[in-house]
Amino acid sequence: MNIGELSPVFSAVPTHKPVKKQIQFVEEKQEFSRFPTKTGRRSLSRSISQSSTDSYSSAASYTDSSDDETSPRDKSQLNSKGSSDFCVKNIKQAEFGRREIEIAEQDMSALVSLRKRAHSEKPLAGAKIVGCTHITAQTAVRFTFFNNKLQSPDSSCSVFLMEMGCVDFLDFSGVSVFAWKGESEDDFWWCIDRCVTTEGWQPNMILDDGGDLTHWVYKKYSSVFKKIRGIVEESVTGVHRLYQLSKAGKLCVPAMNVNDSVTKQKFDNLYCCRESILDGLKRTTDVMFGGKQVVVCGYGEVGKGCSAALKALGAIVYVTEIDPICGLQACMDGFKVVKLNEVIRHVDVVITCTGNKNVVNRDQLDRMKNGSMVCNMGHSNTEIDVASLRTPELTWERVRPQVDHVIWPDGKRVILLAEGRLLNLSCSTVPTFVLSITATTQALALIELYNAPEGRYKQDVYLLPKKMDEYVASLHLATFDAHLTELTDEQAKYLGLNKNGPFKPNYYRYTSR
What we know:
Layout: H1 6-9, H2 28-31, H3 94-105, H4 109-121, E1 129-133, H5 137-146, E2 154-156, H6 164-172, E3 177-178, H7 185-196, E4 205-208, H8 212-220, H9 222-226, E5 230-233, H10 236-247, E6 255-257, H11 262-285, E7 293-297, H12 301-312, E8 316-320, H13 324-332, E9 336-337, H14 340-343, E10 349-352, H15 362-367, E11 373-376, E12 395-400, E13 403-407, E14 413-417, H16 423-427, H17 432-451, E15 461-463, H18 466-477, H19 489-495
Parallel strand pairs: 1-2, 1-4, 2-3, 4-5, 5-6, 6-15, 7-8, 7-10, 8-9, 10-11, 11-14
Antiparallel strand pairs: 12-13, 13-14
């Protein structure tokens, strides 16, 4: 099957699933107070010291004597092609980034093989993709997939997760990048705006992670938004925003929800977090978790992965839930389901995995015991009420990068990791193999939307077709030398299936563990 033939083969189904917790857009007056200001002042939500922008990722060990406090926005740099249409920390780190990317490619064989086919068949020829995603060596491999004579400016959706050499190599390779580690709130929105308004081009596809880019183009550049051929969104928050626009009748382009694809849900959420939660906790605290009492807030895919990993280390794990089905699953998996207030005084670690806001509030933080730890594996920096801790009576003490002691007047200390942002993205790395699956899913979704005949997708939000989900999984089976059993004609007829799939209906619920 040629990549260019994906569009006729796959057909997505519009979804109108009710969203219980809608992410509401704030009033325009309030909303644009978050956007670039003339003063360039950092807002509280992203206010970070220089040391907090350090990372324990592989890129953290790389230093450059030319690295200084000068903002990249104030620097004049040229890439190898003589272009200055980018903004990164130091373009001289490009060679370091190339080596990082080569390591990542070794565990992303499926995406690399798909990239080879794409470079010959060019299914995205003529596409002008603007993206807002995390930028690491692994996600950089995804953009080398797109670099087949298309234009792809990219900004970053994380102020902590950034491997600078990879950022610089992307720009060196022909992808215009506006991103650097330690961006302020003002820098963040400035980078997004520059991606959209790059001179001499206009995007026709959006690749988003969190919905910020989509929302920015929708509110600031409506004429550009109306000409977009498709949006691919991979986050819970971004998908909520798209459903909200669709429900209000304001979504004027088709969008693909890859967040709820099976491969993304299981690997990026369940299997990835099962490993990265321990990676982030160990790198930042060196704590032994055997016998520790841990409460995991939320038992969705992320919560399931975190709970299983901590239980395997011998931790005593409690779970909080609002959903009776997820709560029952936690009970059947051997966890005690409690209310946070019932255990907050004696637990050693609190981990949020809900996608909600203020899951851990100031009153609960006040009642945590001395030396306890709190971190977030869920959504952005909203789950822990960190803003309530920035008060005169509390003292913040930096212990090491991404680790702060918050000290109460009586001397009690609570360890806060990554200032309440995503632990695995801020304090460790995400497994390369997982990102290969996510990137492959995104790439196929872009190909599908870009090549779909007129009329196939209307102005709505669509789930990734089941056939495409299965194709992503099949590409990665070779890594394990796995061999699937093929149905006989008689068996396929008995089950009422096509021998080549899809093998499960859209309503099929894959087991979580």
